[in-house]
Amino acid sequence: MRLLRHLKCAVFLFLAGAGVAQSPGGDPARTPTPEPPPLYDARTGTWTKGAAPEPTTTTRFAGHLIGESFDRWIAINQIDLPEICGPHSKKDHRMDFKTTCSNLTALRSGETGQCPTEDSSHGRIDWFFANSHVGGANMEVFLDSFSAPSSAREQVAFLQELYGPPTKLDTVHNSNAFGGTWDTIEAYWELPDGATVFGIEHLSFNSTGPSRTFLVAVSAANAKSKTVARPKNPYGPQ
After folding, report:
1. Beta bridge partner(s), residue 60
2. What is the C-alpha to C-alpha distance for residues 68 and 55, in angstroms, rounded to an integer?
3. Which of 108, 110, 99, 82 is nearest to 30 (CA)?
4. How many angstroms separate the CA atoms of 180 and 210, rounded?
5. Residue 189 lies in a domain
6. Do residue 178 and residue 113 come from a single domain?
7. Could you tell me which of 91, 130, 95, 152 has the C-alpha nearest to residue 11?
8. Are residues 15 and 115 in the same domain?
9. Three-state DSSP state, 83
10. Cβ neighbours for 158, distance < 8 A, ≥ 6 positions apart
């Protein structure tokens, strides 16, 4: 099992009773150990017999399919959900097993939420889930890193290797109240399976000087189709 120290998942609008059993005292009780997920062989890209069908999406990001099932996601990441939800010694401080079990189980059952992963290859990636599937992912690259300095155009070139030429590529002119001006790059892809990819350069200023980052946001087609209802205008007629 990997990612123990970085596996701090969260469920959005997580209400009592939604995925977590409640004890008589009102505190969340230990979630029952779930059934083991379907086994997925990342080397061959195949499921064991009787497992869920492959997702129909084709957009890949950091070794995953955007839109893949939660079971596929935890299998590729070698996250052992039954082990996490099992008994642990009080001296085992690798993670908050109780909370992680509850949140992972809720995400697996269809709740909406987020779960970050972190490794030496990709750094930190924030994965977003809805309806038991990967709805999208965010990844931030620090362009001024001493170990691997980069530029926004180089990051766009990396994305272009995966997704082809961007649907839209803009140079944005920025300024601040002190008269400073600078340009940043924004790229956008609309992919054949309906997924979208944004690449946005950001420049911030702090006590040590300017800092540049490049944010990549990938969304599945069904994720961007869900909209929040607009609230009623409080200043209009009743």
Report:
1. 65
2. 5
3. 99
4. 12
5. yes
6. no
7. 130
8. yes
9. helix
10. none
Amino acid identity, position 218: V
Q: Structure tokens of 146? A: 């001493």
Among 62, 206, 217, 211, residue whose Cα is nearest residue 145: 211
30-44, 180-194, 215-229: segment of lowest average pLDDT: 30-44
Residue 229 lies in a domain: no
Do 67 and 42 fall within a single domain?
yes
Structural domain boundaries, residue 26: 10-123
pLDDT in tens, 119-145: 877 889 999 999 899 999 999 998 986
Q: How far is CA 60 from CA 25, 39, 174, 189, in A?
A: 45, 20, 32, 13
Answer whether residue 111 is part of any domain.
Answer: yes
| pLDDT number for residue 57 | 75
Confidence of residue 175 (pLDDT cuts 50, 70, 90): confident
Q: What is the pLDDT of residues 35-88, one digit of tens each?
A: 444 444 444 555 454 444 556 678 999 999 999 999 999 999 888 888 888 998
Total-model pTM: 0.73
Query: How far is Cα of residue 31 from the mean position of the Cα atoms in its chain?
Result: 23
